[in-house]
Amino acid sequence: MPKIAVVTDFDGTLMEQDVGDMLMEELGVLNEKQVIEASRLFREKKVGSLAWIEAAYPLLAGQQEQVDRLIESVNLRDGARDFIDFCQQKDVPVTVLSDGMLYYIEQILSRQQMKVNRIIGNPIQYSTDGEFQFGVQNTNAACKWCGCCKASVVKQLKEDGWLVIYIGDGSSDYYGSGFADWIFARGSLARYLTEEGTNFYPFETFHDILSILRLTWPSYLNGTANRRLRGRFPASCKFLELEDKTS
Fold first, then answer.
1. Which residue from 22, 90, 104, 203 puts its CA 20 to 30 A from 32's CA?
2. How far apart are CA 194 and CA 40, in angstroms?
């Protein structure tokens, strides 16, 4: 029987808020010259999230106290806790996959006592003595567009024999969902998928997702659930373009 794994985005998906965006706005990072320019280039699709992250996140150096204070006000998306409980009951591993800052993701999940199997994000941290450490997850030689190469993570799960349920809301999730078997989408991810005619399940809360999975779980286990995708590769994902050329 196939194995099922869940991959979920963090900002704006598992969380009600986009925590990274909130930090950047509240701490004035968005008003810095280099971030304004990186944001313009990102909107014009001349650069990916990697360039934006490199411009913006180093400006959080020395601001651990402010970051810690701000993340106290964020909330899990409605039904997220019930969803994680469901996955644990079904022995379904959950990977939180984010193009955001690993520090706030780990802090929030720990405070919420949310246990998942893996957390993958950009290794941007404050050390125990408050020193700021900057890095990105993407070591993929094929493409340096995103800070976190979500496509490579899901691709590896598929190569390891998993059927993947992907849950997301943003542009990086468009790439991350490229190898998924089923997609639950909201926000800009839902718009992108609608524009290209890709099947997905819309959602606003995790209760929406649970209502589908609980009703039809056996069909996911045997791989026959509706809206399963096969061979869907996002046209703009440079990593996938290179994979296709070299295969």
1. 104
2. 25
Q: How many angstroms separate the CA atoms of 234 and 170, rounded?
A: 14
Phi, psi angle pair for 128, to nearest 5°? -60, -25
For the cut 90, the answer to whether the pLDDT of residue 59 exceeds it is yes
Is 223:2 a contact under the CB 8 Å cutoff? yes
**Per-residue tokens: 223:** 């791989």
Give the pLDDT confidence score for residue 141 in this predicted structure: 76
For residues 214-234, average pLDDT:
89
- HSE (CB half, 13 Å, CA atoms) of 234? 21
Residue pLDDT, tens place only, 233-244 = 666 666 654 454
SS3 readout for the chain: CCEEEEEECHHHHHECCCHHHHHHHHCCHHHCHHHHHHHHHHHCCCCCHHHHHHHHHHHHCCCHHHHHHHHHHCCECCCHHHHHHHHHHCCCCEEEEEEEEHHHHHHHHHHCCCCCCEEEEECCEECCCCCEECCCCCCCCCCCCCCCCHHHHHHHHHHCCEEEEEEECCHHHHHHHHHCCEEEECHHHHHHHHHHCCCCEECCCHHHHHHHHHHHHHHHHCCCCCCCCCCCCCCCCHHHHHHHHHC
